[in-house]
Specification:
single chain, 701 residues, D-amino Acid Aminotransferase, Chain A, domain 1, 6 domains, 25 helices
Length: 701
């Protein structure tokens, strides 16, 4: 029991702030979720009893206040300017040449004593926000508006975890940046809206803007928005160069992008632009171009402004991400839970550098609402979303005898069994449907599951079709003789697969639960279950009751029902699988307090011998704090192959650099590690769950 008094309240609020910053901004948790929750609740109880003592920057003040009637207007101390857009390399070159010409004239006149370099960073596609701080405390958050006045959305901005409520700088300062929504959070939000029968949010930008402008701050708090700074005012009084602002912002507690660099001229700018364009689709946030600024702030006033934008910066925009294509056919895919998803086959179209031939339509309702037919011409967009989608059909190209209406299927396209029609969703209820079983197997061995290298989708499908692997338990019974003679299975591949299977044993409990593919149980829910309900033995997984699950914040009746029924129906298979895999309870994992990397700020760069997520997992198990970019506060830069700008920056700052091999030595492990964080210790025994052959939750594996 944590006892909070007026004397120690400030200390505990400081702890909460430190833990929250590590979790939300650095993506490097310092303590388990339940430890944070216990302290948070204790602080809340104290603040209820002593409202006059509540700190202005207490994390409890992020929850969201009363429903607002509207947004008042507020002034920016320094105007937020728009930017001139350039769309092609020749337009960029013309701008750079103009800057160089002006710079040459200034040099000739002897009016300056500064070099000319260009600072480049992503142009985030969100909603611009200006944060006003004074004496270290967030005073006001204002949208861009007309550049001089915007809407005061302070109550909503306070709910965004990557916006510090207080900063160590005591002067008056404005931090400008972009409010964004991650792709995974838009997916989650749209899934919830589809299930509720509501229309989906169109794209990441609209989702972020709409979420920030909710009249109820509690809704904004649930939307998981993030904030990336791109400017600080008064810049000239605080910095010599634009490039110094990001490091200052990071020191103040903000999350900053790693995709920023300094370029000497057009060729380097174009190279950075192309690099950013290539990684754009892999990022969790939306980008629509790259911002190019003269790095030396002393030159900004010299170059001046037009009526609309500064002459010292431009936005180098990405190509359009919407294209017109034709729907050639629509087929239906069956997922591991039996849900049917319509997928449109379209004439190939290039979006963000990728050739798109297939586009998901999510469910039959979308086909009806968008009035889509086979043969239609449609607008296809990527616009920062996770996967391409059909925005709308184009009636001006319609509609002749060649177009075909899409008929709602009545039977499963794979096993031909009758479908369950739930209105929004169509489901195949046949648990032996090959599509369901194969997708369940793919999920189990996939990267976010147990990551069994060598058992990719095609390989596991081949093993299933040959009758070698019929459920996930069979994966752990594989022998070399089972694989000899199969096409494409040479001796090296067979040895590699068997080693990968062996290495996948002893995974963390939450990764194992997620890999089971239980409906509604994603990575977050799996960790909640294993953190709150599994003590020193994974056999606890078989004993969890519905009431236990519903007692955990973030788990509702639907999730609880899904988990409990899955375990009840699949008890025998789960017991067998637990014996074979022996997952490790989180309570027995390394606590990270005594490792070499404990408490160290670590940056990764280059290509590693194992997936980057796995390296982060192992480092965090030793207590490392993984950060995105190199600064003077970085303790170690760990380098894989083809290390780039981060290595150069680390060398210039004198940061300690470790090769990947040195990292493995410090971890006391090798690259063959698959993320096990301890040795399984099975204590006691779980009761056998009764078998119900008629249950819809019966095993898929």
């Amino acid at each position: 029991m944590i006892k909070i008094t007026a004397n120690n309240y400030g200390k505990y609020v400081g702890e909460l702030k430190k833990w929250a910053h590590a979790y939300y901004t650095l993506d490097a948790p310092l303590v388990p979720d339940d430890e944070y929750d216990r302290l948070y609740k204790a602080v809340v109880e104290f603040e209820k009893k002593h409202p006059d003592l509540v700190a202005e920057d207490s994390p409890t003040r992020r929850v969201g206040g009363r429903l607002q009637k509207g947004f008042a207007k507020a002034e920016h101390h320094v105007p937020l300017w728009s930017m001139e857009d350039v769309f092609a390399e020749d337009e960029l070159k013309a701008w750079v040449d103009k800057v160089r010409q002006k710079y040459g004239e200034l040099l000739k006149d002897g009016g300056i004593d500064a070099g000319l370099e260009f600072y480049c960073e992503p142009k985030f596609d969100g909603l611009s926000l200006n944060l006003q701080y004074d004496r270290g405390v967030l005073q006001r958050a204002i949208t861009r508006g007309d550049g001089k006045r915007g809407e005061d959305v302070t109550a909503n901005a306070r709910t965004i975890r990557t916006i510090p409520l207080s900063i160590p700088y005591q002067g008056a300062v404005e931090v400008r940046g972009e409010v964004l929504m991650r792709k995974r959070d838009l997916e989650r939000l749209n899934r919830e809206r589809r299930n509720a029968g509501e229309s989906e949010l169109a794209n990441l930008r609209n989702a972020a803007a709409g979420s920030l402008r909710q009249l109820d701050p509690k809704i904004t708090a649930k939307r998981r928005l993030i904030f990336y700074p791109w400017g600080v005012e008064p810049a000239a009084a605080l910095f010599d160069k634009v490039s110094e602002q990001a490091q200052w912002a990071e020191e103040m507690g903000f999350a900053v992008t790693e995709y920023r660099t300094i370029c000497a001229g057009t060729a380097q700018i174009v190279k950075q632009y192309e690099k950013l364009h290539q990684v754009r689709g892999k990022l969790q946030v939306a980008l629509d171009g790259m911002v190019v600024k003269i790095d030396n702030i002393a030159l900004h006033e010299v170059f001046g402004y037009t009526e609309k934008f500064p002459k010292w910066m431009v936005a180098y925009k990405f190509p359009a991400t919407e294209k017109i294509s034709k729907i050639v056919d629509i087929d239906w895919q069956v997922g591991r839970t039996g849900v049917l998803t319509p997928v449109a086959h379209i004439d190939p179209v290039d979006l963000d550098g990728a050739t798109v031939r297939r586009v998901t339509l999510h469910n039959y309702r979308q086909i009806v609402e968008k009035d889509i037919r086979i043969g239609d011409k449609v607008v296809v967009a990527r616009s920062g979303d996770v996967i391409p989608k059909i925005v709308k059909s184009l009636p001006q190209y319609r509609r002749d005898a060649s177009t075909v209406e899409v008929v709602k299927p009545a039977v499963c396209p794979v096993c031909r069994s009758k479908l369950l029609d739930e209105g929004i969703l169509l489901k195949c209820q046949n648990i032996s449907c090959p599509a369901r079983v194969k997708n369940a197997l793919r999920h189990f061995v996939g990267k976010k599951g147990l990551d069994i290298v060598g058992l990719g989708g095609k390989t596991v499908e081949t093993l299933y079709e040959r009758g070698i692997v019929n459920d996930v338990s069979d994966i752990y019974k594989l022998r070399a003789e089972d694989l000899y003679g199969l096409d494409g299975f040479g001796e090296k591949k067979i040895i590699s697969i068997l080693e990968s299977v062996a290495n996948s044993k002893n995974p963390p409990c939450d990764r194992f639960v997620y890999a089971l593919g239980i409906e509604h149980v994603g990575e977050v829910v799996a960790r909640l279950i294993c953190t709150h309900l599994v003590s020193d033995t994974v056999w606890d997984l078989l004993q969890i009751e519905k009431d236990d699950l519903e007692g955990i914040e973030g788990i509702g009746p639907e999730i609880a029902d899904s988990y409990v029924n899955f375990v009840r129906v699949n008890g025998e298979k789960l017991r067998e699988l637990l014996e074979l895999v022996q997952p490790v309870p989180l309570s027995l994992s390394k606590n990270g307090t005594n490792g070499f990397f404990a408490g160290k700020r670590v940056v990764l760069t280059g290509r590693m011998s194992v997936p980057r997520d796995r390296v982060k997992e192992l480092l965090r198990a030793q207590g490392a704090r993984i950060v995105a970019s190199v600064s003077g506060n970085t303790d170690y830069l760990i380098c894989g192959e083809d290390a780039g700008a981060k290595l150069e920056r680390a060398q210039s700052l004198g940061v300690r650099i470790l090769a990947e091999d040195e990292m493995w030595e410090r971890l006391g492990d090798g690259p063959e590690s698959k993320g096990a964080e301890g040795t399984a210790s099975r204590v006691g025994d779980g009761k056998r769950a009764p078998r119900n052959d008629n249950s819809p939750y019966r095993t898929l594996w």
